[in-house]
Every structure is written in C-alpha cells, then in structure tokens.
Amino acid sequence: MTSETDATTDSASTSTDGVSADAAAGGLSSRHPNFGRITAGDAGDSALAAALQKVLDGAWSESRAETRAALTPELLNPLGLTMEEQRDHTLEQLQRLADSGMPKLGFRAEDGGTGDTGAALTSFEMLGHLDLSVMVKAGVQWGLFGGAIANLGDDATRQKYLPDVMSLKLLGCFAMTEIGQGSDVQNLETTATFDNATGEFVVNTPTPSAEKAYIGNAGRDGRLAATFAQLITIEDGEEQHHGVHCLLVPIRDEAGNTLPGVTTTDHGHKGGLLGVDNGRIWFDNVRVPREALLNRFGSVDEQGRYSSPIESVGARFFTMLGTLIRGRVSVGAASGASARTALALAVRYALVRRQFEHPETGRGIPLLEYREHQRRLMPRVARAYAYACAQNAIVAELAEFEKDPDAFDEVRRREMETHAAGIKATVTAFANDTLTEARLACGGAGFMAENMLTEMRKDCDVFSTFEGDNVVLTQLVGKELMGAYAAEFGNMDQLETVGFAINTVADVVQEKVRASTLWQKVVDAVTDREHTDFLDRGNQLEILVDREEHLLETVARRLRKAQGEDASAAFKVFNSAQDHLLAAGRAHMDSWVFARFAEAVDECEDPEAKKLLGTLCDLYVLDIIDGDKGWFLEHNRLTTERTKAATAAYNRLCTKLAGQARTLVDGFAVPEFVFAVPMLNGGGVDKPGEPAGL
Ligand SMILES: Cc1cc2nc3c(=O)[nH]c(=O)nc-3n(C[C@H](O)[C@H](O)[C@H](O)COP(=O)(O)OP(=O)(O)OC[C@H]3O[C@@H](n4cnc5c(N)ncnc54)[C@H](O)[C@@H]3O)c2cc1C
To answer: Which burial class, exposed, middle or buried, applies to 31 when counting CB atoms under 10 A from its CB (0-12, 13-18, 19+)?
Structure first.
C-alpha cells in the first residue's frame, strides 16, 4: 500500500547553478524521507499540514475555525437545477448565513453588527471554497449594498435599513455600472436632480447608454437599489453638477412588483453564477425624498444647496470609491479560495490517477510522478500560498484602517487602495488560470460537472471583470506608481500624469523601505554581499525589485516625452506606453506579494513548516523568472546560462515539492466533504485488479 518510488532521478546530482539538490529542496530531504517521493494515495503529514494551515489562517484563525465548522455540503454548487431552482437554493443558503449571524461581523456595533472587518472578510473568503453563487449574492447583499449604506449613509439611514439588510428582510442592489459606462464609472449618465419645489430628488435614465446593467439582485430579488448617479442641484437659477453620488431608490414592492417609473429586466442565463439574478434597471423620473441621498461626502439642504467636506469632484469620487474597497478585497480572496479548492482536487487526483506502466515495476504511474504534471501543479500551489499570505496582509491593513482611519495618512491609505486593486487583479487572474489548469490536469474526469471543476471555472470567470476589470485595475496600480492619482486624484489628465512621472522611482523605493522591517533586513543583506543564488532571499528580492524599477524608470522616461504636448499628443504617448505601464504594475505586485509571503515565512514558528514555506517562496520567485525569462534575457539581467540554471532549479523544486503535495494542499484546509466527488472515490481511477500504491 505504501511502497514508494523515487520520482527525482536527477535530484541527487549537484545542480548546474551551484545549488545542491538538498539546498534546492530547502534542506528538507535529509529530515523528510518522503520529500520528493510520490506516494500514491498518500495521506500527507497531518501535523505539518496543520502548521501550514495556521500560517494561511493568519490573524483571524478563530473566526475561520467558526466559519469552517459552519460550512456544510448544502453550500456546494447544486448540479442539474433549473435557473429558478438554483436561485431559490442560493437565496435559502443566504438566509441560513443571515440566521447564523455571520453578516453582522461586517457591520459596526452602533449599526447592529458585531464589527469585525477581518472576521467578516475571511468568512466571505471561505465561502469561495464552495459555491461562488452564494459568495457573490452574499457579497452583493452585505458587502456592496449593505456596504454602501454603512459607509456612505448617515446615522438615521443606517439605523433605518441595516438591521433588515443583515437579516435579509430587505434585499438590495448596488447599481453602479451602466451599459455605456462600465470601467469609466466617473462618467456614468444617470441623473439625480434636486427639485427645489418639492424637496425631492428626481432619478432618471436620460439615454439608452445610461441603463443600469449586470446588476446583482436586480433580476428578481432586489427591493431597494443603491443607485449611483450624477448629482445636480439648481442654485441661483443655474444647474450645478457635483459628480457621482449614491441614492437609495426603491425598485420593487414587498411582493416583488416593479414600482411605477422603474423598469427592470432579467439577464437570465449567464456564463456562470446561475444562482445570482443579475438584471437591468431604468428610471423614468422616479422621485425619492431628500433623505435618500447617502450623504457622507455630499449633502443637499432643504433650500436645495449642495455642500461637501471635499471640494474637488474627482477627489470626492475617489474618496467615496475608496470606502467601498471591501468588495474588491472579498472578490480577490474568494477567488483565491476557489483556486485552492481546485488545486486540492487536482493534486489528490494526481496522486491516485495512474497512466502508463512504470518500466521497473510494471505498475501504473501516478500522474504526479510526471515532471510535466509537477510543473503544472506545484508552481500554482506555491502561488496559492503566496497570494493567501498577501491577501491576509491586505485584510489586516483594511481592518486596521476601518478601526482607526485617522492612523492612516493619505499616502498609506492610497497604498492600501492600490494594493487592494492590484491583489484583486492578480489573484482573480491566477484563479482563472488555475481552475483551467486543474480541470485539464484531471483529464476527462475534470470535465464531468460532478467533479466540480467545470462549475467552479464557469463561476469564477467573471471575477476578472467585476469589482473592477483586471486590466483597468492593473493600470491603476501602474498609474499610482507613476505618481498619478496623487494630489488631484482622478482629476488628473494624461498631461498631468506625465508630469507626475518624474519622481517615480524614488517614491517606489521609499515605499518599499517603509513597508516592513523584514524588507529592510533583506535590503541590507543585498547591499552587504554579492548574491547570485536563485534560492537566496536577498538575491530574489534584488531580481524582482530590479525588474520593477527598470520598468518604472523606462516607462517614466517614455511618458516624459509627452510633456509640453497637447492633450491629444499626450494621449498618444500614454497609449503607446500602456503595455509598458501594465508590465510595471504587474511587476510591482509580484514584488509586493513576494514581500508579504517572505514576511509570513519569517514569522512562522514551526521549523518544518517554515522550511517548507521557504521552498514554496523559492518556487514562487522561480515561477516569475520562468514566466518572464524573455524580459530578463532581453534586458541583460540574466545570461542564457543563468536562465537555464533557473529552469533546472525550477524543475527540481517542482519535483521536491510534489513529494509533499498532499500535505501542502491539506494545509489549505478545504472542507473534507468537498472531496466526496466521484473521481476521488473509485470513479475509474484504479485499473481493475491493480493494488493501491506503487
Ligand atoms: C455577472 C456580473 C455581475 C455584475 N454585478 C454588478 C453589480 O452588482 N453592480 C454593478 O454596478 N456592476 C456589476 N457588474 C458590472 C461590472 O462591474 C462591469 O462589467 C465591469 O466594471 C466592466 O465594465 P464593462 O463590462 O462595461 O467592460 P468594459 O469597461 O467595456 O471593458 C471591456 C474590455 O475592455 C478593456 N478595457 C476597458 N478599459 C480599458 C482601458 N482603459 N485600457 C485597456 N483596456 C480597457 C477591459 O479590460 C475589458 O477587457 C457585473 C458584471 C457582471 C458580468
């Protein structure tokens, strides 16, 4: 049953880059006889898995344990239901969550909640292990709709609505996107004009492109819509435009009938998330009281006069959006959980599924013994660990901010917002890539809906689009690094962005030095001695930071050429450098994630888990180098000998970590009932008469 074969035929040799195989394995092979060996049906090392789980659970381990205990098979995506049945099922699960009190975690005590942002975000994240329809509908209801009221509403409004939002007595929408304006939210067209004569706002869809589209809960269940519109007042006989604001507009009565002046339609079947009712909304001069305006950043008095604590329209808009980043953080986190579930399924399958006979034993070879299979799964396992640690860091930052906003100066707050955007784009892209690779890695079984991967893949797809399209968010990271988004926030045009580019590199370096004491420790180590070893943390830092800084410096130089040009010429320069700017944004996120992962490794108290995590961190960096080899060669950062050595080290680490694969995915702590899928329970895995094990 437990007989083994050594899968690492080249692991005993000394590597070409001067790194011994044992060092490449983080020194683990001497203490772990199974390290680098594939054992079919391996049950993993439960103590080590528990130590790894502790690192991933992070600061909110208690609330994660509570949520984990509450996760049941009903929260899995049910198969074979009609769209209406699945929507009913999803709504039932939401009611169960509401009854359990979980949504209260995300709301302040004075609003009837229990006020623990970190616990709320990590609970949402864990829903991502199971049915993403439930996670998304919960996110729309409590994160977006409830979040808009909680963050933008005054005391009276919060007290009026939030208890019913939490209990699910009142279902609502977050109606921001319009069919004509998706990513360009600042220019949406819906209007909310104050009528001085009646003291009401008139909410209107003035053009076909102002139709609210794709809105969660708008297709069927929503009663009240947090509606984003251009706020207009008439002061001294003149129209005054104050930019985008949010108003609560009733769209249906309690029985579900659409209200006068409101039109809704149902988007029906989508490419996934069948349990969520997305729809369109139009307003035909719908009147709502003055109190419908969520007035934290702008209010209108009884005389129809507008006032705001923030003067600039652009700054006001971005400050308002900044208060709503929780949704973005949740989406990244849940997609990461979904990727971890997929990897756990694919790794378990790869340990029991055999293809082709071993020449020595004549027995079937477990998939994970193949080098290519190791290369497909293990770097993604490493990234899953890295992103989970980075996600924990952003959750901790947001929780601290919500507890004490005054402790954050503008620079720190903007950094948090930038990293929330960047991590959302990074992790949702990773999740989509991983779900596809995990499905392919399970062959035909992976394509059977009963084995979960196809449904998860369909549901996760749109995570790259909503809560900010990934390209647009990555560009935002790049622009922030360029110094854009500064001072005038979103008011900055292309020319101003170019002007700000000049101080780029110094800003970035300063930001890194500020980031953590660990970072400083590693920076000191790099300047102290010469490093060339790919497995040296200091050298890894140097490789990643050098790439980021080079990309930033060169894009800044390109953008600077546009100074003095008119807006049209400046746009041309900016647009021709867009791919460059995006590459800089991605490079920044790679090194930011690396820093957060390295910190988590540094803080791990269990020595064996720490070693294993250190090896995962090495593979994370080597995966980046492998993926961007062309850049490192083109820019003379690495010679061909060095990139070949990096590939050799990469392969060795994949093989070494494959020997611990089951333990590594057990560290994800995906609920065990997820693995009751046919492909892992005798569904054609073993050939008749073939004994288990090698
Ligand atoms: C299932 C689903 C649920 C949703 N739920 C809600 C909801 O509840 N509430 C809500 O308000 N909205 C919701 N949305 C809307 C969602 O937020 C938008 O779809 C998203 O912001 C993208 O806008 P868009 O679809 O108009 O795409 P576009 O902005 O038109 O983007 C289309 C493509 O162009 C690219 N692109 C756009 N701008 C640039 C640029 N400057 N440079 C380079 N490339 C660019 C993008 O990368 C993308 O590939 C939902 C969408 C979906 C699909």
So the answer is: exposed
**Domain 5-10+24-52+325-675: what homologous superfamily?**
Butyryl-CoA Dehydrogenase, subunit A, domain 3 (1.20.140.10)
Q: What distance in angstroms lies between residue 534's CA and the mean position of ligand 1's atoms?
A: 39
> 215 C-alpha to center of ligand 1: Å?
11
How many angstroms separate the Cα of 183 from the Cα of each of 176, 187, 387, 475?
10, 9, 25, 12
Give the model confidence (pLDDT) of 122-142 as tens digits: 999 999 999 999 999 999 999
| pLDDT tens digits, 186-197 | 999 999 999 999
Euclidean distance between CA atoms 84 and 88, whole angstroms? 6
Q: Quick one: average pLDDT of 366-389?
A: 97
Identify whether the C-beta of residue 491 lies closer than 8 Å to the C-beta of residue 312: yes
Q: How many residues does the chain have?
A: 694
Residue minimizing CA distance to atom 17 of ligand 1: 466
Ligand 1 pocket, CB under 6 A: 140, 174-177, 182-183, 214-216, 270, 273, 278, 462, 465-466, 469, 471-472
Question: Which residue has a Cα nearest atom 48 of ligand 1?
Answer: 469
- Considering the four listed CATH numbers 2.40.110.10, 3.40.50.1010, 1.10.1760.20, 2.40.50.100, the one that applies to the domain covering 172-313 is 2.40.110.10
